[in-house]
From TrEMBL:
Pfam families: Excalibur
Signal peptide per UniProt: 1-24
Protein name in the entry: Putative calcium-binding protein
Annotated organism of origin: Mycolicibacterium chitae (Mycobacterium chitae)
Region annotated Disordered, chain positions: 39-63
Stored InterPro entries: Excalibur_Ca-bd_domain
Span of domain Excalibur calcium-binding: 26-62
Keywords: Signal
Domain of life: Bacteria
The keyword Signal belongs to this UniProt entry's keyword annotation: yes
Amino acid sequence: MFRPLFAAVFVAGVALSAAPLASAAPFKNCTEARSNGYSNIPSSSEYYGSHLDRDGDGIGCES
């Protein structure tokens, strides 16, 4: 009785752990960032890209 249950739980756990995690990427441009509600994006953010930082101060899409 427990063996089929254990097997089902194990298979489900493996399937869930193998699922790829979503990761954020920098916005293509500041228009895209602003349309998604982002501005003043710090360099520590996963949405930051150096192409979004015109003056090179570590803040992208400054408003």
